[in-house]
Amino acid sequence: MSPDPPAAYLDHSGSTPMRPEAFDAMVPWLRDRPANPSGAHRLARDARRAVDDAREVMAEVLGARPGEIVFTSGGTEADNLAVFGVHDRRGGVVVCAATEHHAVLEPTESLGGRLVAVDRRGVIDLEALAAALDDGVTLVSVMAANNEVGTIQPLAAVADLVAGLAPTASLHTDAVQALTWLDVAEVAAGADLVSVSAHKFGGPKGVGALVVRDGTPLAARQRGGGQERERRSGTQNVAGIVAMATAAGLASATRAATVARVGAQRDRLADGLLAAIPGAVETGVVDGDRSGRLAGTCHLCLPGIESEALLFLLEEVAISASAAASCASGAMEPSHVLAAMGVPRDLAFGSLRLSLGWSTTDAEVDHALAAIPPAVARLRSFAAPVVAVSP
Ligand code: PLP
């Protein structure tokens, strides 16, 4: 039998494969155990117990009390619930970093909120944050780590500023990209609201959680059966919640080893590509210092190419990657994250995000190192100026 052709899945920030243990944990709840956890019979009580056990695990991993965990349909819903939920209750001004995920950015913008600048590494400008805070601010949202470039934000300093300058405001952090890599209980200790999403740490898609610390003002967005202590009505996704807790427990227990192993793979990949691709720039990395960034993220800007075309060529060699540019009304726009970091527009068009995760193998890194530089060279040769020949 011939060996499998080389392939590399390098889009873990988009979604990471399910951990087998999480998959196994969810199957019985999909196949054999139909009960609604709000029901009154024994099978329903079993389902409720499974949800409560999962709530305890999530609380432990996130540094919260079980009653502070609200299960949601994922990171987007958790972010929307945090921003709109506090604003619906208190009104006032919402403040967020300019590099937030759209699930925070768009709610904030729709409420006329304030965006705070970041520096060229993508780190929030604390002076600009201080200038944006006053007594009228009711919610501040700063992500734990960025999904495109992997910048980790100084949440403890943000929490101190908010406590001093907008003391009645709640602090939300989108920790969707963080859980595999950072101890969320520790980094988000000063936040009142914390969003996570299972498919970013080895659980299934379509399930997540929002920590709502006791005393945080929050209006429900979904009303109905009053589940999740009236904060999020809707029958709980029992299988998803059980699998999410299994994945969160594993991610947490293996975090140190994952960060060391995958961090070394990411460094080898980034260093190799920077050496092999003329003009390549590692986005947001100043003086080669990758501390302060998620261990699994490698983000490059490659002058002289367009990301979409590169992704197309990479697909031909079985590499799954991402560009992090969005196509609005037919016109390619560079990502708002790169724009906020001051990456020049032409460089941002050649952005490439390679994100590694818990299942990344050395063979995948080898394949990427062998296949990406020639793909870039090929594209650049197409793009070389054509000398016009007179008829
Ligand atoms: N926040 C961040 C930082 C993300 O990276 C994502 C997913 O890409 C989300 C929120 C949305 O999460 P979900 O896909 O679970 O809705």
Structure description:
This protein is α/β, with parallel strands linked by helices. 41% of the residues lie in helices and 14% in strands. The protein is built from 13 helices and 14 strands. It has helices at residues 20-31, 42-62, 75-90, 102-110, 126-132, 155-165, 184-187, 238-253, 255-276, 307-316, 336-340, 345-348, 362-383; strands at 8-9, 69-72, 93-97, 114-116, 137-141, 170-174, 193-197, 208-212, 281-282, 297-301, 319-320, 326-328, 331-333, 351-355. Helix 1 (20-31) packs antiparallel against helix 8 (238-253) and helix 9 (255-276) packs parallel to helix 13. The longest helix is centred in the C-terminal third of the chain and has 22 residues, at 255-276. The chain is globular and about 65 Å long. It starts with 7 loop residues before the first strand and ends in an 8-residue tail after the last helix. Residues 325-331 and 386-391 have low confidence and may be disordered. The structure holds pyridoxal-5'-phosphate. Pyridoxal-5'-phosphate (PLP) binds at residues 74-76, 79, 101, 103, 143, 147, 174, 176-177, 197, 208. The site of pyridoxal-5'-phosphate (PLP) has 13 residues, from helix 3.
